[in-house]
Specification:
The protein has about 400 residues and is an alpha+beta fold. It has a domain of about 200 residues: Ribosomal Protein S5, domain 2 (2-Layer Sandwich). The protein contains eleven helices and 13 strands. A hairpin with an 8-residue loop joins strand 4 and strand 5. The longest helix is centred in the C-terminal third of the chain and has 25 residues. The chain is globular and about 60 Å long. Bound molecules: alpha-D-galactopyranose. Alpha-D-galactopyranose binds next to helix 5.
């Protein structure tokens, strides 16, 4: 499928001869720095070439009409600019509607309705941020279609607000940031407290990043994600009785070891430990990549997974099976779960000429233990959200 085909789909769906404008927002992987974003720590994500396409044209009235090729069974989802409140029946379109609502609330002049067609090639519920991708592509579409002067950071923050206040997942800013500010062949080291960031070239010599989808679907709304966040908040509160910090991300490992006794609950102490050590690992990972010391980088990825498994407890049998099998393969520098966990995807850095054997062996183990197949993709690191003129859609 290419943009021309999507344009034809748009015209057929909305029964118009108008030529819409086309936009794209990627999905993301996170190399390291998991669950640190909502704790004021660092993350190290990169945007991938899978993503969401949105084609849109303004209308003369106040109607909004959404259609997704991926959810064609839901048909055209319709609402009015004057009533953008969350509606269960509007299903996936809530992610887009929420952006209209919050940008409108932020004072942007969104006076006319629009027809928008979506097509995505990010596997759903796989932890590669398909929802943030819909949010950010909508933000960029709004910016361009309505001729708004909008800072990219504003769109990113608005996406997070939609996720938190509209959808009800207390997620951090990592996904929207990676998708909004991604850069081809680079990862982004982001300080989630200050929003200072730097790009690091992803030069992996003769290695590829392999994404392994456990095919265990999950939605964050139905997961323990919000519970983990609450546990971190309680740990922070305990620490604040003596430490002058605003987030766990501000603590060094030494400070944490000195003050951890303040955290009353044993489980909350483990959660906080993961955050502090993961944050330190993320900063170290940037240095390793710059050097480059790829072996060292891979080792940090492995340590990250172990901490997410034992201290943060968000991996689960599927991801552990994949990652443990990956560690045993020849030519693997490192492997870990990526994203929120509880299912979804893992990533591994694998020597290019060992990739085929890697896939075969990891999948054999996975099928034996779990009973169904995993799916493997070679990650290609692409640009952040943008308007497109012509591009091949896979
Ligand atoms: C999800 C959230 C992010 C982040 C990760 C875990 O992807 O949307 O904000 O918290 O989980 O690192």
């Amino acid at each position: 499928m290419n943009i021309q085909k999507l344009i034809k789909e748009f015209q057929a769906t909305f029964k118009t001869s108008l030529v819409p404008r086309s936009f794209f927002a990627p999905g993301r992987i996170n190399l390291i720095g998991e669950h640190t974003d909502y704790n004021g720590g660092h993350v190290f994500p990169a945007s991938i070439s899978f993503g969401t396409y949105a084609l849109g044209a303004l209308r003369k009235d106040q109607k909004l009409r959404f259609y997704s090729i991926n959810f064609s069974d839901k048909g055209i989802i319709e609402c009015d600019l004057s009533n953008l409140s969350y509606n269960d029946e509007h299903n996936w379109a809530n992610y887009s509607k929420g952006m209209f609502l919050y940008l409108q609330k932020a004072g942007f002049d969104i006076r006319y309705g629009a027809d928008i067609l979506f097509y995505g090639n990010i596997p759903n519920s796989a932890g590669l941020s398909s929802s943030a991708s819909i949010e950010i592509v909508t933000g960029v579409l709004l910016e361009k279609l309505y001729g708004l002067t909008m800072d990219r950071i504003k769109i990113i923050q608005c996406g997070q607000k939609v996720e938190n206040d509209y959808i009800g997942v207390n997620s951090g800013i990592m996904d929207q940031f990676a998708i909004g500010k991604g850069k081809i062949n680079h990862a982004i080291l982001l300080n989630c407290r200050t929003l200072k960031y730097e790009y690091a070239p992803l030069e992996l010599e003769n290695h590829d990043i392999i994404i392994i989808n456990s095919n265990k679907q999950r939605t964050l709304a139905g997961s323990k994600y919000n519970e983990r966040r609450a546990q971190c908040e309680r740990a922070l509160k305990d620490l604040q009785t003596e430490c002058t910090i605003e987030s766990l991300g501000e603590l060094t490992k030494v400070d944490f070891e000195k003050h951890k006794y303040l955290i009353k609950d044993k489980t909350n102490r483990k959660r906080a430990k993961h955050i502090v050590y993961e944050n330190a690992r993320t900063l170290e990972a940037l240095e390793k990549l710059k050097k480059p010391n790829l072996q060292g980088f891979g080792k940090l990825m492995n340590e990250s997974h172990i901490s997410l498994m034992n201290d943060y407890e968000v991996t689960g049998l599927e991801l552990d099976t994949i990652v443990h099998a990956a560690w045993k393969q020849e030519g693997v520098l490192g492997a870990r779960m990526t994203g929120a966990g509880f299912g979804g995807c893992a990533i591994a850095i694998v020597e290019k000429d060992k990739v085929e054997t890697f896939k075969k062996n990891v999948n054999n183990t996975y099928r034996q233990v779990i009973g169904f197949d995993a799916t493997f993709y070679t990650a290609s690191i692409g640009d952040g959200a943008k308007e497109i003129l012509e591009e091949v859609v896979q």
